[in-house]
Specification:
The complex is a heterodimer of chains A (93) and B (475).
Chain A (H helix, E strand, L loop, with lengths): L3 H10 L6 H18 L34 H4 L6 E2 L2 E2 L6
Antiparallel strand pairs in A: 1-2
Chain B lengths: L6 H10 L2 H13 L6 E4 L3 H11 L9 E5 L26 H8 L3 E6 L33 H8 L5 E6 L5 H7 L2 E4 L19 E6 L2 H11 L28 E5 L9 H16 L3 E5 L7 H16 L17 H12 L2 H14 L4 H25 L2 E5 L15 H6 L5 H6 L3 E9 L2 E9 L4 H13 L13
Chain lengths: 93, 475
């Protein structure tokens, strides 16, 4: 069971501000879904390997050569918050 | 001009008249739309068509218009993903599939509505409002590629691209009475497609008929070095359009006909299986004992991947930004105001499933169950060529009916999401109606055996007339 404190903690980890009222709503809905997920507990899986993805390919590399990339002004075009060729954000702490 | 045309018919019209005229006619139909299928209609479509007329009609799709789901990047067109958080964002690059389409001469009509970040089965979670089902405008078109399926069903595009993470192409195809394919994982590049759950999703085509699915796959499939999960299967999809199922072995997994299935859906799917039998195929029941755990496994994996993938939406480089006294406050407010409720719920659940103390209980457990589900598919498909089952256990539901309770909505993906866990190809083709609402037959195959799936679907389609039926309301 997820508690109100858990919801607040997850909200902080996910960087989503959650109001007092929303905390209760989320707690109820998340617990209902987690209750459903709990059915997996009945399945023994000690000897089963996890599947992260199904494509049977691993460690895909390309040659280490410089390729053409997007110009800086194009990359910065989607925000008003920029300065000296960089993204501008409020101070961290 | 007929409202519903196959790609071959569209190409004939282009030769008779011009790409410009054909595009103009589609834009006129879109202008009168009552279904809210498009988020953006391209202002450059006519210009693009004119250019193709001027250059001569080169390429397999020269001048053929297409609709694109709004999570697939097209230079110069907004890419909203049905979300407020991408407000104002215009991609500076094309998705690989768009490069392929443009090289083939296709004209992009616009970007279609979808559940926010493809999280939903009804297109109701879109920031731009729900899309209506052309067969009954009080009902959902399915989702998350609801806009793409609905515009094809309503004759607002000859075909479209969607994306399928847990059924997002096949569900709306079934609900809107069109054909939709979720290709084998790795067949189609995901470069430039906004990721929701990248180990599960593939771009897939939606069309009025099986032939056009193959036409589109021949253009968009293939290796792309920008997608590290891309695999070159070298399949020639149109060559698989063979009207013959003699000797084809069909498996019928009884777990896909579970509790709560609509009796008319069950009947229509069995009729389809018997139709294939009449045409020379054989069928046998197969058992896939872990299917009942697939839904929980799917949602844990999808939400976990989403919590990581959607971390990039932080108001820093593009889209909506709220103000805050420091970076953490700015990001937390931006995400609180920019994401809709369902997206936030999934990010929170995914964050929880990956967090210290719960990773093994939820995420790792789900990955292990994924292995068991995949083994069920391997086992079943070692004995038969294809599996047949209902795409959706029920026909399209009413707008607003399920949106309040997330778990009820998740349960509607019970027959589609196991396929994404296993990565196999799966196609939905119209196989009947109940109270005027379309029913979809789901045909699943071995990895990279789209040819068997297409052959079965094509033969069924050529020997039935479900795909010729059109919704009267928008006809």
């Amino acid at each position: 069971m997820i508690t109100k404190e858990d919801v607040e903690h997850i909200g902080w980890l996910a960087r989503i501000e959650i109001s007092e009222q929303e905390t209760v709503e989320y707690m109820e809905k998340l617990n209902s879904v987690l209750g459903y997920f709990g059915q997996l507990d009945e399945l023994p899986t000690e000897d089963v390997a996890p599947t992260y993805h199904v494509a049977e390919i691993y460690n895909v590399f390309r040659e280490d050569v410089v390729e053409e990339c997007l110009p800086q002004e194009v990359v910065l075009a989607n925000t008003e918050h920029k300065q000296d060729g960089a993204f501008r954000v409020p101070k961290i702490g | 001009m007929a409202k519903w045309m196959s790609v071959a018919q569209v190409k004939e019209k282009i030769e008779e008249n011009s790409a410009e005229e054909v595009t103009a006619q589609y834009l006129e139909v879109i202008g009168k739309s009552k279904i809210n299928g498009y988020i953006t209609v391209s202002e450059k479509a006519l210009e693009q068509a004119k250019k193709i007329d001027a250059e001569g009609h080169n390429g397999p799709l020269a001048g053929v218009p297409i609709a694109i789901k709004d999570n697939i990047s097209v230079v110069g067109l907004p890419n909203s993903c049905g979300s407020k958080i991408l407000e104002g964002y215009i991609p500076p690059f094309n998705a690989h599939v768009i490069e392929k389409l443009l090289a083939a001469g296709a004209v992009i009509l616009g970007k279609t509505n979808m559940d926010e970040f493809a999280m939903g089965s009804s297109t109701e979670t879109s920031y731009f409002g729900p899309t209506a089902n052309p067969w009954d405008r009080e009902r959902v078109p399915g989702g998350s590629s609801g806009g793409s399926a609905a515009v094809v069903a309503a004759g607002e595009a000859p075909f479209a691209l969607g994306s399928d993470t847990g059924g997002s192409v096949r569900c709306p195809a079934a609900f809107c009475g069109v054909v939709g394919l979720k290709p084998t994982y790795g067949s189609v590049s995901r470069y430039g497609v906004v990721a929701y759950a990248n180990s599960l999703e593939q771009v897939g085509p939606l069309a009025n008929n099986v032939t056009d699915i193959a036409v589109l796959m021949d253009v968009i499939a293939g290796y792309d070095h920008k997608d590290s999960t891309s695999i070159d299967s070298k399949i020639e999809y149109q060559k698989a359009l063979v009207e013959d199922v003699k000797g084809l072995k069909i498996g019928v997994p009884k777990e896909f006909f579970g509790e709560g299935i609509h009796p008319d859906v069950e009947k229509a799917v069995w009729n389809a299986i018997h139709k294939c039998e009449d045409l020379g195929a054989s069928w046998e029941e197969v058992s896939m004992p872990h299917i009942k755990y697939a839904l929980a496994s799917y949602y844990i994996i999808a939400m976990s991947e989403a919590s990581s993938n959607l971390a990039r939406f932080d108001g820093t480089r593009y889209g909506y930004r709220a103000s805050g006294e420091n970076w953490h406050a700015m990001v937390s407010k931006t995400r609180a105001e920019g994401f809709g409720t369902e997206v936030k719920r999934r990010i929170l659940l995914g964050t929880y499933a990956l967090s210290a103390g719960y990773h093994d209980k939820y995420y790792l457990k789900a990955l292990k169950v994924r292995t068991l589900v995949k083994q069920d598919f391997d086992r079943a498909l070692s004995k038969v060529d294809v599996l047949m089952a209902p795409t959706m256990p029920n026909p399209a539901f009413k707008i607003g009916e399920k949106i309040e309770d997330p778990l009820t909505l998740y349960l509607s993906d019970v027959n589609t999401c196991p396929i994404n866990l296993a990565g196999v190809p799966s196609l939905s083709v119209p196989c009947g109606f109940t109270d005027g609402l379309p029913i979809g037959l789901q045909i699943m195959g071995k990895p990279f055996d789209e040819p068997a799936v297409l052959r079965a679907a094509y033969t069924f389609e050529q020997n039935t007339d479900y795909h010729t039926k059109r919704p009267s309301e928008v006809a």
